[in-house]
Amino acid sequence: MLVNFIAKKVNLKDNFKEMVQKKLSKFDRLFNDSAVATVKATVEKNRQTVEITINDNGMIYRSENTSAEMNEAVDKCVAILGRQIRKNKTRLERRLREGSLDEFIASEPDEIEDGEATEYEVYRVKEIPLKPMLVDEAILRMNMVGHQFFMFNNADSGIINVVYKRDDGKYGLLVPEEN
C-alpha cells in the first residue's frame, strides 16, 4: 500500500512517517497493492488532528481523530479503521482480498462496542420530491429543515446531487462520478 502524507501547519519527521507506515502495514494483507493511504496531519493551537483515508478500488475507508499528541491520534485512527473493517466484515468480504479478512479478524482483539449494530436496519423510508434547484437553494432548504444533508436534482446539470454540512461548518457537494 502506498502511503502519502499531507502536513498542514506542521513538519512531519521521518520517524513519525515510519511509525505510521508500520501501523498501516497491518492492513496490507487486506488491500490490493494499488491501494493508496493518505495521512493528513494538522496542528492548530494545542490540537493535533490526524485523518487517514484508504482508497482501494473505489472503496474508501476513513478515520479522523484529534488529540493532544499526534501519535495518540494516529493510534486511535488505526483502531477506528480496524473496527470499521471488523464491523462490516460480511459486506466487505466481496471487496477485499479473499480470505485476508478472516486472518485480520482472528489476529485482532474483538473491540465491537455495545450499541454498535452488526446488522443495518432501515428504520424509516422517506420519499422526497426531486424538483430541479440550484446548489444555493438546496443548502438553504437543508438549513431550514435542520438536516446535515439534502438530496436534490441539480438544475445546472440535471443530475441528482447531495449537499452536506461539514464538521468545520462549511458545505460539501456530492456529485456522482460517471464510469
Please give the CATH class of the largest domain: Alpha Beta
Strand content: 25-35%
CATH structural architecture of the largest domain: 2-Layer Sandwich
The shape, in one word, is globular
Q: List the total number of helices.
A: 5
Which spans of ≥5 residues are poorly predicted at pLDDT below 50? none
Distance between the termini: 24 Å
| Rg result | 19 Å
CATH homologous group name of the largest domain = Ribosome hibernation promotion factor-like
Fraction in helix: 25-40%
**What is the SS-derived class?**
alpha/beta
Largest sheet: 4 strands, mixed
Q: What is the N-to-C succession of helices and strands?
A: EHEEEHHHEHEEE
Average pLDDT confidence is 83
Number of domains: 2
Spatial arrangement of strands, main beta sheet? 1-2-3-4
